[in-house]
Amino acid sequence: MTRIVFSGGRVFTGRATEPGDVVVEGDRIVDVGIGLDGDTVVDATGHTILPGLFDCHVHFMFSGADLVRSLNTPFSLPFYEAIGNMKATLDCGITTVRDALGADLGVAEAVRRGLIQGPRMQIAVNMVSQTGGHNDDWMQCGAHISPPLHPGLPNTVADGPEELRKVIRTLVRHGADIIKIASSGGVMSPRSNPRHAHFRDEEIAMIVQEANAAGIAVMSHAMSGDGILTAVRNGVRSIEHGVFLTDEGVEEMIKNGTWLVPTLMAPRMVLDQAAAGVAISDVILEKAKAVVSQHFQAFQKAYQAGVKIAMGTDSGVGPHGNNLNELTLMVEYGMTPAEALYATTTSAAELMRLGNELGELAPGKLADLVLVEGDAEQHVKAGTLKQAIRAVYQNGAAIS
Length: 400
Fold this sequence. Notes:
alpha/beta; six-stranded parallel sheet; 14 helices
């Protein structure tokens, strides 16, 4: 088997970058050190070698927040658009994701079977919501809007523990690798309030119980302080967004070992699209404006207290391919560049229970690597990491 050595660069160790070489055989890293040999040499002089990056919150089946466009889009077109969305994400060096709503088993299998290029993914299939919650698509006119249900995307609006038990089992049947719930209202749902908690303790306890029985975890869209608390004390693995996180919520997250996936980009993507002329309702736009400053304060609160953080963007709400802007925002609001990279590699891999295979450059791990020209940490700080990527490898193979 051919030994490929990435020689003469600096290797991101999880906390810092150090001089080093990386040797790959097949789909695995077999050695990391100084002065290593191989059959094929990739000159990494002047470059940083990163592990494959993670985005723990994407929506490959969505391509922006334009409701009018989505209502005039043929049903099957988003499946084809998803191919480009995945490639744009790979080109950022992101080789692993959680698709938090939209991608069905067929989309995931197309990647797993090598039919299309894309990050390896864990899929939620659809988001579990209470009636009137963040994933209830009922509109005041009486119509239901996208995403349309289909054989791969079951209805997941339910109330009460027994209805929810059925929904979770249905999602598992449909191929869910992760269960996503909404324990609060949200920005993009016109009839829900992000300050209001959704689902009661007994409902989330049932969801977590059924997910655990299937060997999978629960992620919770949670913006309100009470919605965060209810989710955390009942055993969800990660809080998504966490906009109105309280001191009590921070304490509970630390006590329970719960991750925060902050998605700092999310409200900004909505506002940027509105500024570019995308038709976004006044209700959604006002909510997006209202949460921005609270969002950053919550991130700082969690970071300073030592809550575990993994990178996620909510890409799909806005364009795919800008994912690495999230790292720069995390640095702007307190993290060091190395900490932001850690949240995008080792911490994210641990959140997704993939730490045995991915998340760091170490012998035995899968050979996902990103070759960055120059100092990757400086690029994170400056917001130029994407532009500095020179090559991406997934399972030891270069992404073309």
